[in-house]
Amino acid sequence: MFVEDPADEISRQALAFARRLNDDVQPVALSGDAYAPAAWGEALAQVTQERSAGAVVGPGTERGNEVLAHAAAILDQPLAANCTALEPGEPATVTRVRWGGSLLEEAAVHGSPLMLTVAPHAVTADPASTNGNIEVVAINAADPIYVRERVSTATAGVSLADAKVVVSGGRGVGSAEGFSVIEELAELLGGAVGCSRAVTSAGWRPHSDQVGQTGTKVAPDIYIACGISGATQHLAGCKGAKKLLAINPDAEASIFANADYAVIGDLHEVVPAISAEIRKATGR
Ligand SMILES: Cc1cc2nc3c(=O)[nH]c(=O)nc-3n(C[C@H](O)[C@H](O)[C@H](O)COP(=O)(O)OP(=O)(O)OC[C@H]3O[C@@H](n4cnc5c(N)ncnc54)[C@H](O)[C@@H]3O)c2cc1C
Questions:
Q1: Range(s) of the chain covered by CATH 3.40.50.620
Q2: Beta sheet of 92-98, edge-to-edge order
Q3: 267 CB under 6 A from ligand 1?
Q4: Nearest CA to ligand 1 atom 4
Q5: How far is the CA of 252 from the centre of ligand 1 (A)?
Q6: CATH placement of domain 165-282
Q7: Residue 117: CB within 6 Å of ligand 1?
C-alpha cells in the first residue's frame, strides 16, 4: 500500500480499502530530497517485487495515480485508477469512477500484482494509525524530472479538499473583486473558497480553487454554490457534499435540481446578508 501522507485523509481512505481486501497490508511511504515521479515509481515497483506483493493500492490523488502508473509500467501491469470497489478473482473486477464521477465503470483487471488506486471519498478513512508499521523507503536515484519548488496557495489554512464548509462562486459573482463576499462568508464559517471553471478561465481565481471534474473533488458538510449554474462537470466535484445550498436568481438553473436548500436571489445581496446574521449571532 503506497501511503502518500500518513496524516492525509485520502491516504487513510485508501488504507481502509486495502485492509478490506486483506489483513496483511504493509503501508509503504517513499521519501527523497524532491518528488520525482519516475524514481518513486521505480522504488515502488522494486518494493513490490521484493515482497512479492499480490496487490498494490494507492490513493487516487494526482501523486498516487502518477506513482502507481510509473510502477505499473515498470512491472508491465495494467493500472485501475480511481476504484470504488473490488471483487477479487481471476480476473478481478473493479468498479471505478470515470468522467469526473458521472459514470461508474465495471472492468475486469487481468494481471498480477493487481495495481489500483482508490477514488477519493469512496470509503471511510481508516482510523488506525499507520505510523507504527509504516515502511519508509528512501529514494536516491537521480531523475531528470523532479519537483524543484512548492508554492503554497492556501490562504486561510483550510484546504479545499478537506474543508467542512465550502463557499463556492461561479460566473454569477461577476469579477475577481466580487469574491470578497464569498471570502468573508467562508472565513466566518471556518471554510474554504471554491469556484467554477468559468471563474478560473476568467482569471478571477487560481485553478487550485476550482471544484469539479477537472478541479478538486470536495466532500464538505455543506457546499454553498453562489452564482453557479450546475453543469455536470461542476457537480462532479461537489456531489460528495452532505448538503448543498444554492444561491441563484434563475429559478430554472439546474443547480437547484441537486440542492437541499435554495435561495432564489442575487448573491451580492444574499451572501452579505447571511454574513451579517452570522456576525450578529456570534458577535464577530
Ligand atoms: C471537459 C470539461 C471539463 C470541465 N471541468 C469543469 C470543472 O472541473 N469545474 C467546473 O466548474 N466546470 C467545468 N467545466 C465547465 C462547465 O461545463 C461549465 O461551463 C461551468 O461549470 C460553468 O460555470 P458557472 O456555473 O460558474 O457559469 P455559468 O454556467 O455561466 O452560470 C452562471 C450562473 O450564475 C447565475 N448568476 C448570474 N448573476 C448572478 C447573481 N448576481 N447572483 C447569483 N447568481 C447569479 C446565473 O443565473 C447562472 O446560473 C468543464 C467543461 C468541460 C467541457
A1: 9-138
A2: 55-59, 114-118, 79-87, 92-98, 103-109
A3: yes
A4: 233
A5: 14
A6: 3.40.50.1220
A7: no
Q: Tell me if 212 CB under 6 Å of ligand 1.
A: yes
Per-residue pLDDT in tens (0 to 9) along the chain, 284 residues: 898 888 888 899 999 999 988 889 999 999 887 888 999 999 999 999 999 999 999 999 989 999 999 999 999 999 999 999 999 998 999 999 887 666 889 999 999 999 999 998 888 887 765 556 888 888 876 677 777 777 665 555 678 988 999 999 999 999 999 999 999 999 999 999 999 999 999 999 999 999 998 899 899 999 999 999 999 999 999 999 999 999 999 999 999 999 999 999 999 999 999 999 999 999 88
Domain covering 9-138, topology: Rossmann fold (3.40.50)
Q: Which of 175, 199, 214, 217 to mutate to test the pocket of ligand 1 (most atoms within 8 A of CB)?
A: 214
Global confidence as pTM: 0.66
Q: Where in the chain is the domain with CATH 3.40.50.1220?
A: 165-282
